[in-house]
Amino acid sequence: MWEFIHKFGSPPHFWRLSGAMIPWFGWIALVLIMVGTVGGLWIAPPDYQQLDAFRIIYFHVPSAWLSQFGYVLMAMAAAVGLVWRIKLAHAVAAACAPIGASFTVVALATGSIWGKPMWGTWWVWDARLTSTLVLLFLYFGYMALRAAIDDENRADRASALLAIIGVINIPIIKYSVEWWNTLHQPATISKLGKPAMDPSMLIPLLVMWLGFTFFFFAVLMVRTRGEIIARERNKKWLRDVIGRD
Amino acid sequence: MEFLTFGKYTWYVWSSAILTFVVLLANVYLARRRLQSRIDMARRRLAAEEV
User: What is the secondary structure of A148-168 as a DSSP string?
Assistant: First the structure.
């Protein structure tokens, strides 16, 4: 186990592995997102209540999922980096932030566009929307803190603390629709129980969700490579790789 | 072209789709640009040390 962690935490190993995996993840994501888009926009039937407006779900839900998953992954990587002093973990955490923030923007914007015809307003200060906005500010805060500290090691440690503290917001987002009265509908898909959607609507959503997840990891690996260069620029292996590529 | 319309929700559906795809493409572009700029910077550093 320790050997595995040590090997996986090794930047040269990650550099080689990610170099081979990025094209695969990228192409799989492209195919899945194309299939999911066609399925969501043209094959799934209109909703009996929301008609065609429900099709926004195919962009909103995968983005919202990744906005939260990205933060949890960032906080976990930051914690691993802080506890075991693994540089690669800090690099992954730093790479998660801009991607997660961009998906949070998409989740908020598509939610707002969906809200206008369904609720009659672009925005309400209810628990789900407000906690998701807080998530976006947490991402911004994390990136701003990193940018404000020149020394990479100090930036890693300080931003890791912020990421770990901010993870408290994730269960608040998740359970906000149960704890408070809100305009936002409850979870469409949950681990327990039958999904509230017909398979003809659900399958394109799952395909989109998978496609977005592959996309996230493809971009994450590219960004992590950039972070590795910043941290390992004096190492011989990187000099060899940079000189050779 | 009727398949491109979604009743009275066409604008809402397409603006959500386009916004999502723009952000996905921006993610790819910015991540690749950042990686390339770091590689270029590291190469310049390496070249300066060799001189």
Answer: H--SHHHHHHHHHHHHHHHTT
| E strand intervals along chain A | none
Whether the CB-CB separation of A33 and A208 falls below 8 Å is answered with yes
Q: Which helix (H) or strand (E) holds A118?
A: helix A87-119
Q: What is the DSSP string of A196-230?
A: SS-HHHHHHHHHHHHHHHHHHHHHHHHHHHHHHHH
CB contact B18 to A (< 8 Å): no
| Residues A90 and A83: beta-carbon distance below 8 Å | no
User: Which of A51, A223, A242 has its CB closest to that of B9?
Assistant: A51
Q: Test B43 with A103 for CB contact under 8 angstroms.
A: no
Judge whether B38 is closer than 8 Å to chain A, CB to CB.
yes
Q: What is the dihedral of CA A146, A147, A151, A156, to 10 degrees?
A: 10
- Could you tell me which residues come within 8 angstroms of residue A177 by beta carbon, excluding any fewer than 6 positions away? A127, A128, A184, A185, A186, A187
Handedness of CA A62, A108, A45, A188 (dihedral sign): positive
Beta bridge partners of A187: none
Q: Check if the interface score ipTM surpasses 0.90.
A: yes
Query: A114 vs B12: CB contact, 8 Å cut-off?
Result: yes
Q: How confident is the model at residue A152 (pLDDT cuts 50, 70, 90)?
A: confident
Q: What is the pLDDT of residues A172-214, one digit of tens each?
A: 888 777 777 776 666 665 555 666 788 989 999 999 999 999 9
Rounded Cα gap, residues A77 and A99, in angstroms: 15
| SS3 state of residue A91 | helix
CA B28 to chain centroid: 4
d(CA A6, CA A148): 30
* Nearest neighbour of B23 by CB, restricted to A55, A56, A102: A102
Token pair 């906000």: residue: A176
